[in-house]
Design a protein that fits this description.
By secondary structure, the protein is α/β, with parallel strands linked by helices. The chain contains 14 helices and 21 strands. Strands 8, 9, 10, 11, 12, 15, 16, 17 and 19 form a 9-stranded mixed sheet that branches. Strands 1, 2, 3, 4, 5, 6 and 7 form a 7-stranded mixed sheet that branches. The protein binds ligand BES, manganese (II) ion and zinc ion.
Length: about 500
């Protein structure tokens, strides 16, 4: 998709469709006003007949308005003008794209981005529009033998900005939105691929391709490497699978040589049947999504590389399957992690923390400035926060705040849960240093508390994305979250770093 920004009036656009906002009570946006004036009141005449009063969710497609060169005009109800905040704006953009799905316009001029959104600037509006428009075109059809015949596809989108002085910011926002959308697409594709195709090996190949394309180093640790590193926790999970495990390491170096990297560690369970503590059959297919943490690491690094962020980023992806087998972990087994700490595996279905703990210990060698792990870790997090927010836990308040704010800006929000010392006793074991589960209470926090025992040497945050990484039900599929949050976090770290280094080089 091709995007551009333009400051101009809606009645002068020679294009497939002009998209303009109408607020509740038939209040015309600036763009709708221009269309109405040019057509000598044709638009207000239509509205007066009651076809649209501007409530959120309404749309009205008009073919040809007198004296308006655009082939079509789509009016989009945006609710009360005073309440046009982030969620409403996002809904309105998505609703417009939905309404345009079945028409043949190859180019549109989009004027919703011109309207005032509470507390947000032009860059925010443009970036969100690009992301939502790109997402609206997403299809996962690579595994259908006969893909649906597609109508004439949308090719170009012109995004309106209020002033000429907004053009430069708008263009930068388009670049960011497109890089982000590419990262989200990659994460969704990988998430949607089934376990028989998207294996640990497949994820490793994807990482290698990414590294080749963007010229950064990718290495893959194999089972013997893990054995010599003493990754007993990770290897205990992969022992039950015919697919060899992989520890995938991506090293994007866009920053200065001496800049400590940011590490992103993603859970890459390409299928989680639960192991000997096997899951119930209903919806077990959804456990192909148990590698969405890994997918978000690949997606975020892809976006960062496309944006050429001046930052060093290390991606670490432990990848395995979790299956029942004669050789699999048994409840009660005790394994020794790379850190030397021993773990009693009371439930083989709490496998994510077992592969992550060794990956986190491995990450120490990069002396990272911060580590963020991303994992579909607990069903309890889905119960606590649903599909709206990822669960965030951290051993550093500053890092937690940064991630929460990045999520708010990207509209890919997280919500913090406590990691108090008092929770740790739930992990007590009679036979090992700790158990891998801690009873029914506070399941998401216990997952985080387990990982906290392996992250004492750096600033660390944990994102539990079990509720946000995919949708269930009729629209089942990967969402690409939390790629937007992660990329925003990286963008902000990069600009903070740029500001600091430019200060240093200013002559005294
Ligand atoms: N991958 C699952 C978590 C999960 C469950 C994500 C449902 C999304 C939906 C994870 O490996 C798991 O099985 N966790 C267990 C932990 C429990 C045994 C302490 C869970 O949540 O039931
Ligand atoms: Mn599990
Ligand atoms: Zn799992």
């Amino acid at each position: 998709m091709e995007f551009s920004v333009k400051s101009g009036t809606a009645d002068k656009q020679r294009t497939g469709c002009v998209v303009a906002a109408v607020f509740e009570g038939r209040r015309l946006s600036a763009a709708a006003e221009q269309l109405d004036e040019a057509s000598q009141g044709a638009l207000t005449g239509i509205l007066r007949r009651g076809d649209l009063d501007g409530r959120a969710g309404q749309v009205l497609l008009l073919h040809t308005l007198p004296n308006v060169p655009s082939e079509r005009v789509l009016l989009v109800g945006c609710g009360k003008e005073k309440e046009f905040h982030e969620a409403r704006y996002r809904e309105a953009v998505a609703r417009s794209m939905d309404a345009l799905k079945h028409i043949g316009a190859t180019e549109i001029a989009f004027f919703l981005s011109e309207a005032e959104v509470k507390g947000r600037d032009v860059a925010w509006k443009i970036r969100q529009a690009v992301e939502i428009i790109e997402a609206s075109q997403y299809r996962f059809e690579q595994l259908k033998s006969k893909p649906k015949p597609s109508k004439r596809a949308l090719k170009r989108v012109i995004l309106a900005v209020p002033r000429r002085s907004d053009l430069a910011n708008g263009e930068q926002a388009i670049r960011e939105g497109q890089a982000l959308a590419a990262g989200v697409r990659l994460a969704r594709d990988l998430g949607n691929l089934p376990g028989n195709i998207c294996t640990p090996e497949y994820l490793a190949d994807q990482a290698r391709d990414l590294g080749k394309h963007h010229h950064f180093k990718v290495s893959v640790l194999e089972e013997p490497d893990m054995k010599s590193l003493g990754m007993g926790a990770l290897l205990s999970v992969s022992r039950g699978s015919r697919q060899p495990p992989k520890l995938i390491v991506l090293e994007y170096r866009g920053g200065a040589e001496d800049q400590a990297p940011i590490a992103l560690v993603g859970k890459g369970l390409t299928f989680d049947a639960g192991g000997i503590s096997i899951k119930p059959a209903a919806n077990m297919d959804e456990m192909k999504y148990d590698m969405c943490g890994a997918a978000s690491v690949l997606g975020a690094i892809k976006a960062a590389a496309e944006l050429k962020l001046s930052l060093n980023i290390v991606g670490v992806i432990p990848s395995s399957e979790n299956l029942p087998d004669g050789n699999a972990n048994k409840p009660g087994d005790i394994v020794t992690s790379m850190s030397g700490q021993t773990v009693e595996v009371l439930n083989t279905d709490a496998e994510g923390r077992l592969i992550l703990c060794d990956a986190l210990t491995y990450t120490e060698r990069f002396e990272p400035q911060a580590v963020v792990d991303i994992a579909t870790l607990t069903g309890a997090c889905v119960i606590a926060l649903g599909g709206q927010a990822s669960g965030l836990m951290s051993n550093n308040d500053q890092l937690a705040r940064e991630l929460l704010n990045a999520g708010k800006y990207a509209w890919d929000r997280a919500w913090q849960l406590p990691l108090w010392e008092e929770y740790q006793k739930q992990l007590d074991s009679n036979f090992a240093d700790m158990a891998n589960i801690g009873g029914r209470e506070a399941g998401a926090i216990i997952g985080g508390s387990f990982l906290a025992r392996f992250t004492k040497k750096f600033k660390w945050a944990h994102l539990d994305i079990a509720g946000t990484a995919w949708k269930t039900g009729k629209e089942k599929g990967a969402t690409g979250r939390p790629v937007p949050l992660l990329v925003q976090f990286l963008i902000e770290r990069a600009s903070k770093y740029a500001a600091e280094t430019s200060k240093e080089t200013v002559p005294a």
